[in-house]
Request: fold
Amino acid sequence: MGERHRSTEEQHAALPEAMREAVDEFARHLASVRNRSPHTVRAYVSDTVSLLDHAARMRCTCVADLDITVLRSWLARLRTLGAARTSLARRAAAARTFCHWAHRAGLMPVDVGAQLTSPKAHRELPAVLRVDQAAALVTGPADQADPASLRDRLVLELLYATGIRVSELCGLDLPDVDRGRRVLRVLGKGRKERTVPFGLPANRALDEWLRHGRPALARPASGSALLLGSRGGRLQPAVVRRIVAAYAKIAGLPHTKPHGLRHSAATHLLEGGADLRSVQELLGHSSLASTQIYTHVSVERLRAAYRQAHPRA
Reply:
């Protein structure tokens, strides 16, 4: 049975015992030591199991048997199966992370993953709303008597005002909001905490939600969650995505996701004169390279405006 027809669980079960134990310990390391999210752990484990399954087919019986030839042939096989450059780059990164961990754990005499290179993933420039489009989107929910409308308004205002991720938004608790200083305490990737400011429009939406919206939806099981669903539980990312898409459609905008508001917030900050380091800190990027893509967005918008407006463009 080919790899593409077998689930990760089936591949994991078929691994030699030493490999199976290694990948299980790697998963525990990612979750408990590196504080990776469950989604990230699943992705890394899936790629690692795929690598070890391939290695077992090449008669490897333990992690120490892996070498650069095995890693390269694994990526080559994935490419022949139709894997995109972005997928190959992600899988190569997972292999490097696993090999680095295995070497430090004493399971591999040499960190062979350090020798592995992968094609750079083609990175599309993120779609960004204009300032007037972002304003039309976040002011869409206008029914001040409907608790869900008040919540939706706050969701949109906070996403655009702060540039936080949808998971960070849904994870906010009431004590995370400092209304006096107008800042949020945000728990980001790797459980890293940062402080993010928000402006007056978001503060007004927050006030309306806390006074009239949240009390109407709150239930005994709501706990301290800032944002609530229709049944009083913590608002889920899937619901936030539906909220953003629905109001974007109402406003006559292209299909928009929460991350689109994050992209827009970062780009508008830079266009307004914010320095790159400040935007990096606001977004919670561990690397400045992740933030620099927004400078390219700004340049592209400038070029488009120049071509449209300059008589000798």
In short: The chain has a mean pLDDT of 88.
